[in-house]
Structures are given as structure tokens and as C-alpha cells.
Amino acid sequence: xxxQVEDTDGQHSGVTAEVVGQRLEPHPQEPSKGDQVHxxxxxDGTRKTSGSGVDACAVDKKRxxxxxxxxxxxxxxxxxDGTLTGDEWLAVEHPEQVAAVLLLPNDQSYDPRxxxxxxxxxxxxxxxxxxxxxxxx
Length: 137
Fold this sequence. Notes:
This protein is mostly beta strands and about 140 residues long. The protein is built from no helices and 8 strands. A hairpin with an 8-residue loop joins strand 2 and strand 3 (about 35-45). It is globular, with a radius of gyration of 16 Å.
């Protein structure tokens, strides 16, 4: 499913992201750990140098997050059509429960400043809280 990436104000950034494939298989560097979720993704409308980041979550059939991590367009490879594609691995405790990998549209690429860095207001706008294990999506 393709999502339109939104900035911290909830506005569409002109960037889309989507999972284009997923499968269960052992990670080539850690085959003894058994199956993991290997998925491929694509970003469109972004530049490699000013990338977007979205949370990718492996979910069960009830769309409960089993594991989430942020993926960034800057970690993907440019394709001839201008899109950026990449792949990631999710080491889910029970990979057989994974029904899908969902991308959340909230751009997580902002560098949130802490209150110690900006005592006045904590650094201004921040992305929404990251998704995590157990969240209903």
C-alpha cells in the first residue's frame, strides 16, 4: 500500500512511500536465527540528500505491531525512473504471525531538539511519537 508522507504539520510533502514486496527468510549474515521479515520499499518524490523517513511495522492479521523501525529514503538506491528503492530486515520474535509490513505516513526524518538544546520550547515542531510493539495500527 502506498502512503503519502506527511510533514510535522500534517501536510503532504509530495513524497510517497510503499512496501513493494515482503517474504520470510533467514538473514544471509545470521541464518542460524531462522526466518526474519525481509521487505523491499520504494520512495518517490524525494531527493537522496534531503530524505524522508517513515516507520515500517510488521503487523499481525489484527494490525497489531509486532516490531517497528524507521526506514529512510537516504538509505535507498536511485532507480532510472527517479524513485529510490531499498530493502530492510525485521527480526520479529514470531515471524509466522506477520501478515503485512505497513508504512506509517508520518515523516520521522526531523532531528528533534531536546529541551536542553532549546530551553524555550524544546525545539519547535517534532514528528509524532514513533510506533512500537503492541500498537494497534
